[in-house]
# Entry
Amino acid sequence: MPYLKKFKIPLLWLRRHTSSREFVLISSVLVGLTAGLAAVALKTLVHYIQVLLAYGNRLLEQPLWLVVFPLIGILLVVFMVQVLYSGLLGRGTASILHIISQKSSIVESHKMYSHVLTSGITAGFGGSAGLESPIVVTGSAIGSNFGREYHLNYRDRTLLLACGAAAGIAAVFNAPIAGVLFAIEVLLTDISISAFIPLIMSAVVGALCSRIILREEILFFADQVNVFEASHVPFYVLLGLLTGLMSVYYSRSAWRMEALFEPYQHQPYRRALIGGTLLGLLIMLFPPLFGEGYNSIKLLESGNAASLLQDSWLSFFGTNEWLLLCFVGMLALVKVAATTFTIAGGGNGGNFAPSMFVGAHTGFFFSRLTNMLQISTIPESSFTIVGMAGILSGVMHAPLTAVFLIAEISGGYTLMIPLMIVSATAYALVKYYEPFSLDTKKLAQKDELLTPNKDRTVLRILQIRHLVETDFHTVTPDTTLGELVQVIAHSRRNIYPVVDEEQKLKGIILLENVREIMFKTEKYDLVQARELMIKPPDIVQATDTMTEVMKKFDETGAWNLPVLNKEQYIGFVSKSSIFTKYRKLLIKTTAN
# Structure
């Protein structure tokens, strides 16, 4: 936030002369403004990259370039990440959730601009991924670094992080309500009424940025909305079930295809070549997969679906209605592959826009098929729009965000009832098969996902490395009883770890187990530590989560457990120190 440096002195004055709540309100406006401008910059960057590519290389007349550009974009992004960020960028909403739970909501400062640049190049060159996740990371980084600059506590810093994300989403879609709901549903696990005002202020400022600066052709909106009719409710329920199943397919397919790239995780350029090539081949068969895909959605909801076949090899067969229907259905199925190849290949983007793409094509397919079979006559534009909410709810596990986002971009609340029906049905079905969203599943498997439960939230914030106590005197297996007594005389602890020359833990000696013989001087040279040591009740690894550590304490009943880095002894962790740190952190995270 370079331009905010000129305001640093006034802000420091405000920090000292206002209450924490008042300063957070002021900060939320500045964070919202900065995140909104970042979103505007990102959308503008993508738009003009595509304009330059189209005019400079006659993209529209030479579809072959559609195959080449995405590969070039992914390679450029991989090169930038390797050279500028040492191969570590941290993509998607999951990275922010990990930072909230494991890094005290402190986001690296380079993420305030790195995601704008890398995702802009990815999508601008035709990568089949969305810009929403990168702008969430960017806005979160802006809020987090603002909070860190002015020494805000964890709770206020996390709130500003969410404000930045809300402003980013609001600016990208010109949808402030959706921005607020996204921050609440996805990022904030514990929300109070007092947090709503900063979120709303940030989202409104972010939305105003895009509305004032961006031209209409850069923003995505839908305006072909039909009046809702109660007789269509059964069809909306069926659409909800279909989008729910498609969401399960989307999430599981993405996971499986991403796993195929695991063997190349330390070979970034090979991964980029594979991902970019596969993406190019898909785009050659299905040109609408080029870029975010919002143009395709606009064609569907405006009744110009036949234009999707333009430049496709299927156009050789004409514009047969059944051929078009099959093409739209195939687009819904293969979009997940295109997105996964983009992201797993090394491009930067998210699943937000692809989810809406799949939802729109699913809704159009369902409604057009219903009409063609003469089962009923239902409005295709409305089902196209509502379908976006179904997939968005299922993939992102954010039904409220989906409902209000689609309502806002469609220019009103005419479809509120069908949006609720489809979103709720899809979400309920997906939740049964997939308890976690596509972005949070990996975090849940690592037990790093925050929950509304404050106790579990605090435990996940705690880190073993901050709790290891190293003031325990070690002895070797050959240490005699006499030498051990001298160690005991100079120690305030009642546990003595026994380690070998390589610092590998062999056992522990408890003071209570040597108390009876420690004054028998005739045994000082006869008894060694290996005869007195016992196996510890359990072992804590430095990589264990706090949930795993507390489980070990509960199962053993111990108050102190040794901590190892693989096999090497590094210290002890005590239940009392965990409780002390827990109480301090609980006060810190719940303070208003």
